[in-house]
Amino acid sequence: MVIRRVLAPRIDFGALRRELGLPEDFPADAQREADEAAAAPPQPPVDRTDIPFVTVDPATSRDLDQAMHLARRPGGGYRVRYAIADVAAHVTPGGALEAETWRRGQTIYLPDGNVPLHPRTLSEGAASLLPDDDRAAVVWTIDLDADGGTVAVELERALVRSRAKLDYTGVQAAADAGRLPDPIALLPEIGDRLTARGLRRGAINLPLPEQDLEPDGEGWRLVLRAPATMEEHNAQISLLTGMAAADIMLAGRVGLLRTMPAPKPEAVQRLRAAAAPLGVHWPDDAGPGQVIAGLDAAQPRAAAFIDQAAELMRGAAYTAFDGELPEQPEHGGVAAAYAHVTAPLRRLADRYATEVCLALHAGQAVPDWARAALPRLPEVMASTDRTASAAARGAVELAEAAVLEHRVGESFDAAVLDVDAPPNGKSRPRPPGGTVALDAPPVRARCLGQLPLGERVRVRLVTADPAARTVLFELA
Question: Apex CA 297: angle with CA 399 and CA 338, to 5°?
Answer without folding.
Answer: 90
